[in-house]
Design goal:
Distance between the termini: 51 Å
Largest sheet: 7 strands, mixed
CATH architecture of one domain: 3-Layer(aba) Sandwich
Number of helices: 12
Structural class: alpha/beta
Strand content: 5-15%
Order of helices and strands: HHHHHHHHEHEHEEHEHEE
Shape: globular
Bound molecules: S-adenosylmethionine
CATH class of one domain: Alpha Beta
Length: 239
């Protein structure tokens, strides 16, 4: 049977209010697998069609390359960029628990614009919509299907000052204006290096970096150096 997935999920978030959906974040959780599991439940209740969208991307990639070359599925579909098609997307997103801990330190002010470089489905935008509604959000993401799904959900939630744009970061000459920039290792070492160079000349209040690749590059660069570790979180630093 053929059915319209976006239609099925359109009313999910309104059946339960957002405070209820995000209530598991009121309880402290220490383990990354549990955080990921709770995040995936929250995504389902919000009405995110992540699994379905990833399956569509995988089937497009399988037509071009066999299963044995799954690490090339992302690059073959997205002009050489590593978009990790074929991996469980929950692993690639920052959990809602970690976002809560991170933004309690960042404290975005009313009107401040948060920019996520390599934004996936724009989970950060949805999180900010509920917890910091007066902030703005722009997520830059190369995979158009992820962008479309993230924007669909944000519109469904009635959110108009937070959105995603389908852009290849490697092709940008300069970054958009923002107050708080966030990077969680994306694409490749070369792409991350290029964006970190651009960020040196981009006015901002804060740069928040997650992941070992960016961390190693920054430690070797005296303009960045150590940064400030976010307590409670494994691999998040603020510059
Ligand atoms: C690790 S995920 C991070 C998701 C999100 N920032 C979070 O923390 O939940 C990295 C994302 O970067 C995207 N990406 C990879 N190369 C890119 C590029 N050149 N331009 C824009 N996005 C890219 C991938 O498709 C993937 O969705």
């Amino acid at each position: 049977m053929d059915f319209d997935l976006p239609l099925i999920s359109r009313h999910k978030a309104s059946q339960k209010n957002l405070s209820d959906i995000f209530s598991p974040l009121n309880h402290f959780v220490d383990h990354s697998i549990t955080k990921r599991h709770i995040s995936s439940q929250i995504d389902l209740e919000l009405g995110f069609n992540i699994k379905q969208t990833e399956e569509i991307l995988q089937s497009k990639a399988k037509k071009l390359l066999p299963e044995s070359q799954f690490d090339q599925w992302g690059p073959v579909l997205h002009g050489g960029a590593q978009t990790w098609i074929g991996l469980d997307f929950q692993i690639l997103q920052t959990s809602y628990h970690d976002l809560k801990a991170m933004f309690e330190i960042i404290k975005p002010k009313a009107g401040e614009r948060v920019i996520d470089l390599g934004a996936g489905y724009g989970r950060i935008g949805v999180f900010l919509h509920h917890f910091y509604p007066r902030s703005e959000f722009l997520g830059i993401e190369i995979v158009k299907e992820r962008v479309d799904e993230g924007n669909r959900l944000l519109r469904t939630l009635g959110c108009h000052d937070k959105k995603l744009a389908a852009i290849d970061l490697d092709k940008m000459g300069e970054l958009p204006e923002g107050d708080i920039f966030f990077i969680y290792d994306f694409g490749s070492v070369t792409h991350i290096k290029k964006v970190l160079e651009m960020l040196k000349h981009t006015p901002r209040r804060l740069l928040v970096v997650k992941g070992q690749i960016a961390r190693q590059i920054m430690l070797k660069d005296e303009e960045y150096g150590e940064g400030l570790k976010v307590k409670k979180l494994e691999d998040v630093y603020i510059y």
